[in-house]
Structures are given as C-alpha cells and as structure tokens.
C-alpha cells in the first residue's frame, strides 16, 4: 500500500486529489493544522465514502466546514493518501453529489462573511432561533459559534441572499463605552509619542527647568525640607518636585526613581534667575 503525505496550497489541488483518488483508489484523510477535526474520503471505484469527526454534526457538515475554514483562513490543510485502502463505511456519495458540495456557488462566497458580525435585521419566523436570540440581545456572532450550533457560513450566505437577515462587521472596540475608547486612544497616542520621540520630550522639558529652579530656590530660602511639589508643569503636564537640593521631573509615569527621571541640582552660587534675563 503506497502512502503519500503533503499539503494543499490552493482549492484546485483538492480537485486534483479527487482525480488521483479516482484513478488509484483508496482513502484520503484531510486535516486543518492545529485543529482536531478530520475528514476522510474513500473511493472504491463506484462510490465515494465520506467520514468526518466533528462533534457528530454529520459528514456533509464536516466537509463543508473544512472547505470553509480553508477558504476563510488561507491555512494550508494537510492530506494523507493511502493507495489501495479498503473503504470501511461512511456517507456514500456519487461523484456528482460530491462535486455538488465542492462546487457550490455559496461556498465560494463565504469569504464575504466577517469573522465576527452583528445581525441588524432579521425575519424572525424564517431563521434558526439562536440567530433571533443574537439579534434581540445585539450580541455579535462568530464563525466558531455558528459551527457549534450546527450551521455553516454557507447557510449564512443563503440567509443573506434570501433577504432573511442583514449583517454588519463587528469590532471588539465597538463594545466599549465611548469615554473608555477615547481614554485608551489618548493613552496609546501619548505612549507612542513617548516611544518615538524620547529626545524631543527631554529637550522640551529642559526648557521648563529654569522656571523650576527659580521656584526651588524660593522654597529653599523659605526653609523647605524634604519633598515639595513645585507650581511648574512640564511637557505632557508632568510635575516638578524639589527633593532636598535637587529638582526632579519624574517623566510621564509620574514616579520618582525610574529611568525616565530628569534631575538638576540647585546651584550653590552664580545662578542668574530666569526672570532677570532681558527679553529680546
């Protein structure tokens, strides 16, 4: 018995594999990488025998799901061909019946179905109850959840073409409150600027150290000790502190003692206050 193992790179390869099976006779086992489901197609010279291992949903369901996952993920499935293997049961199909599944027009339209989608309109009495439940609760539906209910993406295509449902792509960000989305977007933008332009941040912040020095010296004259917050704001509204004899800007994280701290020692003598420099 000859054994061949390989990958299918494009849908036409599947049809070529079926032609080889018709010529050589035997069994082909197909599986998507990193997934448990497996289907096998055996030919005895007269009929094809289709078997699938997919939670007992049926052999046709297993084959359609396999083809849909291949088309929508572009992951290359692996096959094993056992030439001369005797067929031992499964769903018997003629070549015409098998090709009807493989060449179904709806199968080639499943790429249009988003990975997550929301049902916006529905004919309540003409579709499965779980779709109605998702529509009423405005809960998004995923491809995986659809399969768990025993339906395929091809079924969704049929519902759409019949006008029984309308859908739109769903993004996880859409489920967040508006204020939270704005807050997270702002934080992301600040972090991006901080990562891309660290030198610019440092240069801009240095311009504020003159003002911070003035306030730091004022606090020392008044007898301040320990840690004092100064009435000066740096780049991105960061704070300045007088820490004993040192001016400290803790950076965007606001924590003293981290790597992004900027520090300047208070001068002992010869310091010219910023307000005493004539403006040109």
Can you summarize this structure?
This protein has about 280 residues and is of the alpha+beta class. It contains 9 helices and 13 strands.
Explain what you see.
By secondary structure, this protein is α+β, with helices and mostly antiparallel strands. The chain contains 9 helices and 13 strands. It has helices at 11-24, 59-73, 95-102, 129-137, 143-148, 153-161, 178-196, 198-206, 209-221, and strands at residues 3-7, 26-31, 38-43, 48-53, 78-83, 91-93, 116-122, 141-142, 165-169, 227-233, 239-243, 246-249, 262-265. The strands form 3 sheets. Strands 1-5-2-3-4-6 form a 6-stranded antiparallel β-sheet. It has a 4-stranded antiparallel β-sheet with strand order 10-11-12-13, with helices on one face. A hairpin with a 2-residue loop joins strand 11 (239-243) and strand 12 (246-249). The longest helix has 19 residues, at 178-196. The radius of gyration is 34 Å and the shape is elongated. The model is unreliable at 276-280 (pLDDT under 50).
């Amino acid at each position: 018995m000859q054994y061949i193992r390989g990958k299918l790179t494009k849908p036409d390869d599947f049809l070529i594999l079926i032609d080889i099976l018709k010529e050589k006779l035997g069994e082909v086992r197909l599986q998507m990488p990193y997934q448990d489901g497996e289907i096998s197609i055996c030919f005895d010279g007269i009929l094809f025998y289709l078997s699938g291992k997919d939670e007992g949903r049926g052999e046709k369901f297993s084959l359609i799901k396999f083809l849909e996952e291949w088309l929508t993920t572009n992951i290359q499935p692996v096959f094993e061909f056992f030439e001369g293997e005797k067929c031992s049961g499964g769903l018997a199909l003629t070549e015409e019946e098998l090709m009807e599944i493989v060449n179904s027009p709806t199968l080639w339209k499943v790429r249009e179905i988003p990975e997550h989608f929301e049902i916006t309109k529905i004919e309540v009495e003409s579709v499965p109850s779980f779709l109605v439940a998702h529509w009423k609760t405005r809960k998004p539906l995923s491809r995986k959840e659809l399969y768990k209910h025993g339906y395929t993406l091809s079924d969704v295509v049929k519902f759409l073409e019949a006008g029984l449902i309308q859908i739109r792509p769903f993004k996880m960000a859409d489920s967040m409150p508006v204020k939270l989305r704005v807050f997270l977007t702002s934080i992301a933008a600040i972090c991006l600027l901080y990562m891309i332009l660290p030198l610019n941040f440092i240069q801009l912040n240095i311009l504020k150290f003159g003002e911070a020095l003035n306030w730091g010296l004022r606090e020392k004259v008044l007898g301040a000790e320990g840690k004092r917050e100064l009435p000066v704001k740096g780049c991105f509204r960061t704070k300045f502190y007088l820490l004993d004899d040192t001016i400290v800007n803790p950076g965007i994280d606001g924590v003293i003692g981290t790597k992004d701290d900027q520090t300047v020692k208070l001068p002992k003598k010869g310091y010219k206050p910023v307000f005493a420099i004539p403006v040109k």
